Hints:
229 residues, alpha+beta, 2 domains, 10 helices, 9 strands, elongated
Amino acid sequence: MSKLVDAILSAGYEDRILTDKQLARIVGGGDARRYGLVNRSLKDGSLIRIRRGLYAIATKQPLAIHPFAVAQSLRPGSYVSFESALSYHGWIPEAVYTTTSVTPDRKTTERETDAFGHLSFNPIAIEQYGFLVSVDRIKLGDSIALVAQPLRALMDLVAFRKAEWQGVNWIEHGLRIDRADLTNLRKSDFTALRRVYKHKRARNFLNKLETEVLTLKSAQHSRKEIRHD
């Protein structure tokens, strides 16, 4: 174990993403000392560089730092959405190997990491005041990440793909989202997103989906009444 990693562990920061400023506080001394310790730790593999000035401890066990927290540290102000958030909430059955986020930046950027996989940051047409509507602050171990609620993640995906409404079958079979998850949505979930998206296509999709969900709920209620009779 390198001196730097030993100092990080002693400080209780083993499960955190660390900046140069934090490392300077942990090891003390001047910049040259810190640079030397960092470079030796990177060389022996005990420290991972996420990007310049951002690090994590390497371990033989699965990393305690969640990829969502890494995404948050790479692009402060972004939030995890699309398939990543849908998978996190259990709305899609497939494992997702890319952490996808919505960014306030104008361009899509991507980063490949050995330890945390592929991370992608994508802009979509959102009204400025609506950027963090239906986005939750979630604690992941010792870190924090912003993660879209299920309907927000679905609608972000719709807006990003510029998808037209094709009926609920597209959601069920194309995205493999269970109908039961859709019928668990509340009116307030839809209302919150009413003025979030700039493009008429996304707003129309949201309205059509809400109508379909209400129809499905009504049909469920009718079937329950028939069974009780």
